[in-house]
Amino acid sequence: MNSPLNVQDRAGSGTSETVPRTGLPPLMIGNVEIGFPVVQAALSGYSDLPMRVIARRHGASYSVCEVMLDQFLLSLTKRQKTKHFLDIADEEHPVGGQLMGAEPEQFSLGAMKLVEAGFDIIDVNFGCPVKKVLGRCRGGFHLSQPSVAIEILKRTRDIVPDEIPVTVKMRRGIDDSVEARDQFFEILDGAIAAGLAAATVHGRTVVQRYIGPSRWEFLREVKQHVGSEFKILGSGDLFNAEDCLRMIEQTGVDGVTVARGAIGNPWVFDQARRLAEGQPLPPPPTLHEQARVMREHFDLCEQTYSVERAPLLMRKFCIKYSQNHPQYETVRLAFPRLKTRADFETALSEHYAVDGPGRYIPRELHGSQEEC
User: Fold this and answer.
1) pLDDT at site 3
2) How do strand 231-235 and strand 198-202 relate by DSSP bridges?
3) Alpha-carbon distance 299 to 289, whole Å?
4) In this predicted structure, what is the pLDDT of residue 270?
5) Which one of 72, 243, 252, 329 has the largest count of C-beta atoms within 10 Å of its C-beta?
6) Which of 213, 170, 177, 172 is nearest to 191 (CA)?
7) Cα separation of 206 and 76, whole Å?
8) DSSP characters for 160-216?
9) Cβ neighbours, 10 Å, residue 121
10) 366: which DSSP letter?
């Protein structure tokens, strides 16, 4: 282990944090070579093809699509309005397809739709904490019923071709009870026995949602429990490159998945790579660099959806990108009512025409977008 690397805290407190300088081994999930072990998580309403491709171009070695319901997948047609859900760009492989549902047989059939679409890894969602999802016995609800959860994992692994890894996304339990903890490990052991290749574990409970800190010490315990063969990816409170390396160092997980910290901030992946190689933390993207990537993202959005839909879909992304601007509180107001590409270009001309330094996104601005 090399000596620690001191970096300036990005939240703006002026304090110094210590991030270990490490040589990180490449991540393998089953027979799929991922590479650098800092990847993009599934994000409901965000991790579509344009976001994934932008992340890939900025150093993400793997990403997961936004979660899809098994019922939705089974009814999906090639209609223009919905076909984008299964679109995959040639440049983004390997890419994971994530799904959730309530009934084991239907769940496994939904998994095959993702296989047919060309996803390299199939990820089962037992982690989503959204109330309407829990109320329909999906997502994180399965952590309270190990027998059903394990049956879903078995059926999914059985139907998916052997060469395609199956993984599972979990939170550390429904709640902090002893029963919930036991149920978590029962499902985790069932996943290993069923032949899954990896699990992504979020350090919060389902009930906790995004309130309070993610318990990284639990991730260390999980990794020690499964040993070296079964891969564990950590999740929770990863808002910058330093957080990513720190989680790997402190917990021993095989990789980490960046969720909210990657929205409007694809630079986090390259920054993590550079820190892991022992290089200094690069400066935040300049205003011209931010504008260039926003235009690139807009282009991908037009190609994936349509010229008419792209401005509406880009509103939320542009607001997130604007967090990198030193005058964020003013700049963000230019994007909520985008209706055309011309509106977008006008906003860039007003706020990004003159180059200047950007900023690292303050930690408190990372909101509660649903990470499912």
Assistant:
1) 34
2) parallel
3) 15
4) 97
5) 243
6) 170
7) 29
8) S-TTS-EEEEEES-SSSSHHHHHHHHHHHHHHHHHT--EEEEESS-TTTTTSS---H
9) 23
10) -
Phi-psi region of 260 (alpha: psi -120 to 50; beta: other; left: phi over 0): alpha
Q: Is-catalytic flag, 128?
A: yes
Q: Which two tokens stand for residue 104?
A: 């084991």
For 201, residues 6+ apart whose C-beta sits below 8 A from its C-beta are 170, 171, 172, 218, 219, 222, 232, 233, 234, 235, 253
The secondary structure of residue 236, as a DSSP letter, is: S
Residue 369 CB partners (closer than 8 Å, separation 6+): 43, 44, 45, 46, 259, 260, 263
| Residue 132, number of CB atoms within 10 A of its CB | 9
Burial per residue of 315-343, b for 16 or more beta-carbon CB atoms within 10 angstroms, e otherwise:
bbbbbbbbbbbeebeebbebbeebeebee
At 87, which amino acid appears? D
DSSP state of 353: S
At 208, the amino acid letter reads: Q
What local confidence, expressed as pLDDT, does residue 83 receive? 66
Mean pLDDT, 10 residues at a time, the chain of 372 residues: 36 37 84 98 94 98 92 70 81 96 84 94 84 58 91 95 97 92 97 98 86 88 96 95 97 97 97 96 97 98 96 98 98 97 98 98 72 54
Distance CA 223, CA 230 (A): 9
pLDDT of residue 345: 98
Residues belonging to the chain: 372
**Residue carrying the six token digits 């601005």:** 365
The Cα–Cα gap between 128 and 204 comes to 11
Task: Tell me the two tokens of residue 177.
Answer: 């009870």
| Paired tokens of 179 | 């029963």
Q: β-strands 231-235, 255-258: how paired?
A: parallel
Tell me how far the alpha carbon of residue 311 is from its chain's centroid. Answer: 23
Please give the backbone phi and psi of residue 98, each rounded to the nearest 5 degrees, phi first: -115, 140
Kind and range of the H or E run holding 300: helix 287-304
